[in-house]
Design brief:
By secondary structure, this protein is α+β, with helices and mostly antiparallel strands. It contains 13 helices and 19 strands. It is globular, with a radius of gyration of 21 Å.
Length: about 400
């Protein structure tokens, strides 16, 4: 059955790419041990692109792994967001460059050419030798690793092996190295037309690469979420770190609940942005009224951005369910419509709901008018601020109009 679905879907749609291995990776020791192993396995090339790269213990550990790879002859392209990774010292960056690592910063917040507002490179991806890739929402920093006394921030990534990694390397190359417009257009056409060949008989898992980048006309992740929710039959599990969905997605969730789908939201009980968390809680009454269940993760900061729907669809990546990810940032998710992967993922989410989350109920909400006013203000302020950020992804005061 699984092989028949594989063949049908693979030849039916060019959105699908085959993989020989797909594994869910958890934040903490699992992710960073996996990342180090992937870097250590590199023989030819490493593309690493991330929003935050901090100069702390974990940052230095990964930097040392990259330096070691570069010194043994691996070609490394490191692309960091100019705002998210702005705290890196000149000395830290120069030490990486001195070992032969090519480092670039995406869209510094201020430059001589532009003032970048909402458009950030928010995706997190590592591709090694066109054969293995690691994609998710986990940045390179101590807080995602945790310690003996502190839990890591809750987040996920996905480890891929196989033909799909060639497409992901091309994606990284387009982001990193192609600046000439004609070359970029040719590369994009090549990416759209190419179907990765099946490398061997073990490649029996299909995945989809989904991107959001409004300036490039890509709104794939948003559409993927809404389509999957509208087609849900039995259950929806969503983990949302900065959960402030737009009207279409809220309506899709409500419609799913009304037709009998069990909708479970795992949201932040602890947040690194208290204003955003307060804004999210303003939506609780609306969600309660439509039979949607809310569970709050309180062991650490919740940073995950994933969904599991029914027994046949899941998505993992950097995309937050809010306007900033939908219309401002550059995001990357991997959709996995594989029954075995989805079943295991769903069991994991059910286990953390039962053991590590606290269910929210209407009667637990603070009903004092001051608290309600505070939540309303947080919601209005946060929504307005995000909308302003994404109206103009960047402002170029030096642009010459012809």
């Amino acid at each position: 059955m699984r092989e028949r679905l594989f063949r049908r879907n693979y030849f039916k749609s060019r959105e699908y790419y085959p993989a020989s291995r797909v594994r869910l990776v958890h934040s903490g020791k699992d992710y960073f041990d996996t990342l180090e192993d992937v870097i250590a396995s590199a023989k030819h090339t490493i593309h690493l692109q991330t929003y935050i790269f901090e100069e702390d213990a974990i940052g230095k550990r990964i930097a040392n792994a990259l330096k070691a790879a570069s010194l043994r002859g691996v070609s490394i392209a490191l692309l960091l967001d100019g705002f998210g990774s702005k705290a890196l010292s000149h000395k830290f960056v120069q030490e990486l460059r001195n070992t032969g690592i090519d480092i670039r910063f995406f869209a510094p917040f201020f430059s001589t050419q532009s003032i970048y507002l909402g458009r950030r490179m928010h995706h997190k991806i590592v591709v090694v030798d066109k054969s293995v890739a690691l994609i998710g929402g986990i940045n390179i920093a101590d807080k995602y690793h945790g310690s003996e006394t502190e839990e890591p921030w809750l987040d996920y990534a996905i480890l891929l092996q196989g033909s799909v990694c060639g497409e992901l390397e091309l994606l990284c190359h387009n982001m990193y190295g192609i600046r000439n417009r004609l070359k970029r257009i040719r590369a994009q056409r090549f990416l759209k037309k190419q179907i990765a060949p099946i490398q061997d008989d073990d490649e029996r898992i299909l995945v989809k690469i989904k991107q959001n980048d409004r300036l490039k006309g890509k709104n794939q992740i948003s559409r993927s979420y809404i389509r999957a929710i509208r087609n849900a039959h039995t259950s929806i599990y969503i983990t949302g770190s900065y959960f402030l969905p737009g009207t279409k997605l809220r309506k899709a969730l409500v419609a799913a609940s009304k037709r009998g789908v069990e909708v479970n939201l795992i949201l932040a009980g602890v947040s690194d942005v208290p204003m955003f968390q307060a804004a999210t809680t303003w939506l609780y009454d609306f969600l309660f009224r439509h039979g949607i269940k809310i569970y709050e993760w309180k062991k650490s900061v919740l940073h995950g951005k994933i969904a599991v729907i029914d027994d046949n669809w899941s998505t993992v990546g950097s995309f937050n369910l809010n306007h900033l990810s939908a219309y401002g940032s550059i995001e990357l998710n991997i959709d996995v419509p594989d029954e075995v992967f989805v079943r295991d993922f769903k069991e994991h989410l059910q286990s953390i709901i039962e053991s590590d989350c606290e269910q929210a109920f209407p009667e637990k909400q603070n009903r004092k008018w001051t608290a309600r006013l505070g939540r309303w203000f947080a919601y209005q302020f946060t929504r307005t601020f995000i909308k302003i950020m994404v109206v103009f992804p960047y402002v170029n005061p030096f642009k010459k109009f012809e």
